Amino acid sequence: MDNELLNNTLLVVLTSLVSLFYVVSVSLYGSDFFKGNTFAKTYKQPALIVTIVTHIAYIGFLTAPEGYRLNYSISMLMTMVALTLAVIYMFIEFSTKTEKTGFFILSFSAGAEILASILLFTSSGDGPSFSGLGIGIHLLAAIFSFSSIAIAGLYSFLYLLLFRQIKNNKFGFLFENLPNLEVLELLIKHAVAFGFLFLTITLLAGVIGSIQTSEIINLFDTRLIALVIIWMFYGFSLFIKKLFGWDTIHMAYLLIFLFVLTTTLILLMSIFSPTFHGLSF
Questions:
Q1: Residue 72, Cβ neighbours under 10 Å: how many?
Q2: What pLDDT does residue 218 have?
Q3: How many CB atoms lie within 10 A of CB 77?
Q4: In the chain, domain spans
Q5: DSSP code of 221?
Q6: Rounded CA gap, 109 and 102, in Å?
């Protein structure tokens, strides 16, 4: 197998450790959520921090031969999605002091990292690398944007699930263990704020990167139009309740729709082109 990763013992160990640490973190968050385990409650946050730090070091070693530049390979994008999901969740947990949703978010993060590790071990992991600081920030912000959109979509789903249980007077396990509706609404707002911030950075960095590479920006490009529409909807979501009186239920449906839309666009990208910018509709 022609794979440089397999010839680098340190990277092999780090790749395995990162996946293992994600599994451990998910297990601790799950044990606390489902069983209220005291040990898990005490060590789940330190475990998550160790996982994130190890993951950052791993990506540093992985990208060092390319001058610490990310590439557009599926394995690289998946491992970055895993990292950004974990980082955004950590900031949300620390800022809201809410720990009961970590199992759900980190399960997706662990799944993405395990898949990325499998792809790294079974393929060359090669892909076109970005060129220029603007494009690098553009790519990183785009990955953070998708992770924020995914988290907002998941929180919206949990909100709707809990709302329906309360509406039907079914006060079961989720009602007892999930944060209440007010806290879930706060979590949704934090995720939306992160999404809008990173979408804004994605657009601005993309423009700067295009200027650096003398690339002509096509304002009628369907990909650009789709990105701007999603960005506008996320900005709109921050003020929709105050300006138009929309309740959180309608906003949750909107955020789930935006997550499905964004995921569909990314799947199209991965099928037809190794990079978003090489895709033509």
A1: 20
A2: 63
A3: 25
A4: 1-118, 132-281
A5: -
A6: 10
